[in-house]
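The protein record filed below.
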Amino acid sequence: MEPERQEYKGHILKLRAREGREGLAREAEREEDLELLIDDQPVRYGQLPDGRYFLHEYAYDWRDNLMDLSRRFIDHRDRAEEIQRKAEPGGRG
């Protein structure tokens, strides 16, 4: 399987076969055999019984598509960082 790669708001999103499992991914084409990376950092995810995915660090939203879920996670993280900046002494807000 060729890795899927997207750029979103300056971040690189990748979905690729887990290392050492490239052959299995080609045969099975199951998303459980895939590794999700944001800016080359692995992101843990799971799958709900109805097939939707969730991220362990972002359990507030569930999606059928891991790349879409990754984009929502980046948006959430950006909002949280902006709130933290505003809350710091001397921050604008």
